[in-house]
Amino acid sequence: MEMHIIQWVRIHFFGFFLFTGASAYTDFEYNLITSLLEQYDINSRPVTNISDAIEVKLGLALNQIIEMDERNQILVTSVWFRLRWTDAHLTWNESDYGGVKSIILGTERIWRPDITLYNDVREEYVEPTAYNTIIQSSGAINWNYPTILRSYCKLDLRYFPFDQHACDLKFGSWTYDGVKLDLTNMSTSGDTSSFVVNGGWLLTSMPVKRNVVYYGCCPEPFPDVTFTIVIRRLSLYHMFNLVLPSIIIIGVSVLAFYLPPESGEKVSLGVTVLLTVTVFLLLVAENMPSQSEVIPLIGQYFMAAITIMSLSTTMTVVVLNMHFRGSYRNQVPEWLKKVVFGGLARIVCMRTIVLNNTTMDTEKEQVEPAICKKWESEINGTHPNKTNTIKKNDKTETNQLLEQILSVMRDFQSNAKKTDGEEQCRTEWQLVAMVVDRVLLLLFAVITVTVSITILTSSPPYT
Q: How far is the first Cα of the chain from the last one, in angstroms, to the nearest whole number?
């Protein structure tokens, strides 16, 4: 029983001691804050000599790239500010206030530098007064707070989607010049240790530079600290959703030259592919800023593709015109035969097909049937086996009958020659169209591959 009483007394005595100590510390802190702020003026620069400049150190930690609005050229980032300066009016002797080394005060109760983002594009600026400052006994003040920045970023889209951009965050005092406030950087680079990886952009570096600028309004210098966020686009999304489908579509369009003219779909295929590539170009243009300084790399590729598709459709119309030109009984010019059948056919390995379907000897004689010559000799009386036993009347009737039959056969032969000539004309034009079609197939295939490789492998200077 006595042991329980002793233990109870010890516990209550220890609790009373802790409560008394904490209460005393709280009283010291309260008295310290009251003493410091009794005659404190938040509008007065906290320096001992009015001619001295207060040194403010600025640090920045990049937490996340929230958005890159490429059309409006605006970068939205989440950052952590780190400000350091010394307030000569907020110092104390620790021994006078129970060993209190630091206190926490709201920013609305003390002087703070008006550090402003010069290239800020926010419609409304919200003061970060919700975050307190930590004040040391020496007067050193640490003010750390997070915020969202919306800054203007000049984009260079020449190598889109393989582009890299350097977006500046330029900070400086809006009111105090360099004589009254000396703004410096805490380190040579921004803090990226807590950066959250972005799926569309790769953070390459974040250098810091201090500048001293003289503006036209004032003769005094104005120092600023500029953080440069260097980011490179991850091009997999655009390659998979824009470039690769375009390459496949353009490859399909080249096969229009391999499509037979009788199908009636050669021009339709070319026009459809042309419209598809145009839609892809519009999708890219919707996300690009309205500027005329440079043409993006992917824009150059789509324009080259549209040009190729337009020429391809035009040449398809020319080939179709050649294919059906023989229906109008137009003969193939001799020079065209020599160029196409003699030269181009060998290049595209179609010489054998040409020889099997036409003849190069246009002066070949047509041999009349032997029966026609025999009957003609019978009528003229020059047949070697002729006998004189046939009566005169019978001979006359026989000759008349033979003349009628011979006339019909000659008409038939004439029509056959005419039909053969028309068929020969159509065949020659179709062969010309086939050879030209094959030549254009190879030509546009080479052009498409060359243009695609040349444009898409153009190396930016920073790779």
A: 83
Convert the pLDDT of each residue in 372-401 to its tens digit: 555 555 555 554 554 444 445 555 666 666
> For residues 266 and 440, what is the distance between their CA atoms, to the nearest angstrom?
13
Tokens at residue 73, please?
């050229």
**146, two tokens:** 């997070």
Angular region, 312: left φ>0, alpha ψ -120 to 50, beta rest: alpha
Residue ranges in the chain whose pLDDT is less than 70: 1-26, 326-329, 351-423, 459, 463
- The C-alpha atoms of residue 17 and residue 20 are separated, in whole angstroms, by 5
73 contacts 153 by C-beta, under 8 angstroms: yes
Full-model pTM? 0.72
- Could you report the per-residue pLDDT of 220-261, keeping only the tens digit for each? 899 999 999 999 998 888 888 888 888 888 888 787 777 777
DSSP classification of residue 327: G
Helices (H) then strands (E): counts for the chain: 10, 11
Integer-rounded Cα Rg, in Å, for the chain is: 47
Residues 80, 187: Cα–Cα separation, whole Å: 15
